[in-house]
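## Example record

The block below lists the input lines for one assembly entry, exactly as stored, with component labels intact.
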Amino acid sequence: MAESRPTPDTQPTQAPPQIVPLGRQHLAGFHRAVDRVAREGRYLAMLEAPPFARTRRLVLDSLKDGGVHLVALANDEVVGWCDLRLKAAVTLRHSAILGMGVVAEHRHRGLGRRLLLETLARARSLRRIELIVRADNTAAIALYRSCGFEVEGTCRSYLRHDGVEFDALLMARLEPLPGV
Ligand SMILES: CC(C)(COP(=O)(O)OP(=O)(O)OC[C@H]1O[C@@H](n2cnc3c(N)ncnc32)[C@H](O)[C@@H]1OP(=O)(O)O)[C@@H](O)C(=O)NCCC(=O)NCCS
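Predicted structure tokens for the full assembly:
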């Protein structure tokens, strides 16, 4: 007997990606996801991920230093990330730099917002979180604004790609001081 095709109503629904702290077992998948988003050439300063060994070292050093690194997993594959890397100088230890990305086929389904909110929830002790975003990255800017980030300035001609220059925005979010 011919197998009946599932109707849209009976098709299995995919569970939403799970968000977990990045562990050593996720490093290769994290590197692949960063590389995919970087190669789109529109969103990140890098146009490909750094070599795996360097990525691994950067992440492990950041984790040792108290950084927050989350990944989103769909069928055990890393499909998104959000991280906060602490600054080194002693006078800047209250602030961190945010980086994030979601691979193309998982965008516009709420995953970026989930990743960002979960990361911020784990960083309540940090007074200042900042990032630099290309000025034409409207999706990311809208997400950041809706989560409390404000534009602090424009970095003119910040990026140059294929001879074209792009401005970028410095955005930051301040955690209220206790008791204020
Ligand atoms: C920015 C990014 C992480 C958002 O992830 P996402 O999973 O697509 O975002 P979500 O579905 O959670 O949407 C969150 C918000 O982003 C904004 N947004 C998402 N897609 C948008 C679009 N196409 N246009 C305008 N705003 C958009 C909206 O404010 C949206 O909130 P809403 O759904 O309540 O309207 C994702 O687009 C991405 O990875 N982009 C490439 C990498 C990148 O830009 N990284 C940041 C570098 S600074």
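Residues 132 and 170 are 5 Å apart (CA to CA). The chain is about 25% helix and 35% strand.
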